[in-house]
Design a protein that fits this description.
The protein has helices at residues 6-16, 29-41, 77-85, and strands at 20-24, 47-49, 69-73. The protein is an alpha+beta fold. The protein has a domain at 17-82: Alpha-Beta Plaits. The termini are far apart.
């Protein structure tokens, strides 16, 4: 998988003819940023529908008004869902720090 820069993300789907499908609609900016960071860290390209215009309209999130939806390539949808469904691995508290 190629490493995409943020400048190219906006138009990469159009240029390459990739079919994008909705993955998730985060309920907060924190959830949006965290989800995007996780997907991009694992090489899954993303696009946020409503990312620019939706940020200008404060208030409750309403579908098709100011809600943001993360889109991913159709062929990577199952990988993205699996990544988001996997629980984060936490260190055991029983083990002492090795400092």
């Amino acid at each position: 998988m190629q490493n995409w820069t943020w400048q190219a993300e906006r138009n990469w789907a159009i240029i390459l003819g990739v079919s994008l499908v909705p993955l998730v609609s985060p309920t907060s900016e924190e959830e949006l940023v965290t989800t995007l960071a996780l997907l991009r860290a694992y090489g899954i390209p993303t696009h946020v529908r409503g990312g620019g215009f939706g940020s200008l309209l404060p208030g409750p999130l309403l579908a098709k008004y100011n809600a943001k939806t993360i889109l991913v390539p159709e062929e990577l949808l199952s990988d993205a869902r699996e990544l988001l469904a996997a629980p984060a691995a936490l260190p055991d508290d029983d083990e002492p720090d090795q400092r």
